[in-house]
Each structure stands twice: as structure tokens, then as C-alpha cells.
Amino acid sequence: MKNENxxxxxxxQSIYADYVTDYAAWAAQRMQAPLELLHIIDRPIASTAEDHxxxxxxxxxxxxxxxxxxxxEQRSKAARExxxxxxxxxxxxxxxxxxxxxxxxxxxGDLEDALVEQQLGVRLxxxxxxxxxxxxxxxxxxxxxxxxxxxxxxxxxxVTQPFSAPQRILIAFDGGIVTRRGVEMVAAxxxxxxxxxxxxxxxxxxxxxxxQLDWAQKTLxxxxxxxxxxHIPGDTEKVIADYVRRxxxxxxxxxxxxxxxxxxxxxxxxxxxxxxxxxxxxxxxR
Length: 286
What we know:
Layout: E1 6-11, H1 16-31, E2 35-41, H2 58-96, E3 103-108, H3 111-117, E4 122-128, H4 145-151, E5 156-159, E6 169-172, H5 177-188, E7 197-202, H6 207-222, E8 227-232, H7 236-247, E9 251-255, H8 262-267, H9 269-277, E10 282-285
Parallel strand pairs: 1-2, 1-4, 2-3, 4-5, 6-7, 6-9, 7-8, 9-10
Antiparallel strand pairs: 5-10
Helix pairs in contact: 1-2, 5-6
């Protein structure tokens, strides 16, 4: 299957489309995976023109409906043309970065539905943490991020700024099944090969947490990774933010599983604030 285990870049009509494409191309190259650029055109919205059909004759009503239908078709055609232009630009950008091939797809519908539908063929999703519908502020969070991540069970890489090849990786590790699988994924995948990986636990230290952290460090070390493990008590958001700044981390990996203690970190107000404030790409695990 041509697109099996592909990297799927979700792009829209915003400046973040370039960033998403660059990170997706980087990931596809490192994983030797196919790259696809996907642009979703929102379902057409019914015309909001004031309805005077009850006060006009039959012929005039038919003419009005024809006019509105023609306007809707023109808007739809314009959206398709803009989308094709965007995808062509992004494909050229990806090819310029050194990737051998980049497929393109455009469709009408809902973003969440489209991404869920393709899960079996996707190895990694890449999307902007903000987009065309979001305000252009550093602390804004796109409206699609939470609902998309909730719906998917594949890793989702969210990006916010122009591409810079990651050099230091941080795994926010809680010892739960999702972040344990995340450690195993990092150990087995070529995506982060050759890069130093930091492991960080927060909260109250215990013999069990020490054992879990040792397991994670050993798993990565045996896979050839240079690792540094730390357990720092304190508020999770602050611990992560301080560590990222102090150690120069440029990619964060964290869990987003409903039954994990990290669920509140991602879906609660604490993580919303962390994602809004973060300026580094974040790989969310399911």
C-alpha cells in the first residue's frame, strides 16, 4: 500500500502550514516514511442572505435561489483553487528540503473525521498548534487541537514556530502505560536516533517511581541513546517549563491518555496553559 505508515501533515491557509510541512518532511526523512500533505475544506455553510422568498413571486424566488446557489458554487470553487495552490506550494517546499516524494490530498469535510478515517495508514500526524481560525498571538491555541488528539490513537506532533531540527528531546515520564510505550517507541524508532534524550518525572518521589525511571533510562540506553534522567518534585507545569528552558530542550514528548494522571495535564487547564505557552514542538502520545 503506497501510503501505509505515512507521515500525515495537516495544513491550512495559515503561516503555520510552512512549519507543519517542514517538521513533517524532517520526520518522514528520518523515518524513511511516505509524506502526505492533507488540506481539509470546511463543509459549505448555507447562505446567510436574508430570506424574502415569502414576499416575492414564484419566478423571483427561483431566480434568488439560483443566484444563491451560484454564489455558493463560486465560493466552493475559489476554496478548491486556493487549496490546490497551497498544496502545490507546500509540496515544492517539502521537495526542496530533500524529501524524495510528497503526495497531496484535498477534501471537503470535517478535520477530525478525515484524520480518524485514515488512522490505519498513518504512523505520525503533524499539525499546527494554531491555525487559520486562531488569533495570531503567542498564547493562542487552535480550536482543533484538543478534539483531534482526543479522537486519535496515533502520535501527534504539534508545532508552533519555524522549523529547527531538534537536538535535545525531553520525555515527560510518569511511569504509566502510555509514557512507557512512548519510551519503547522512541527506543525503536529512527525518528530520534542519535539525539540525547532527557527523562523527567515530577511529583513525590518513591521507590516505585525510581524503579520506573531506571527502567526507562535502561531501555533507551540499551537502544543506543545518550540519556539523562531526573526526578524533580513540584508542580508539573512549572517543572517541565523550567527544565525545558534550563536544558535547552527543543522537543517535548508527553502522554495524552484519558486514564493517566497526565490526562489532566493535557486536557485540564494546566496543560492548556502549558501548550499555549510552549514554543517547542510537542509530541502527544496516545
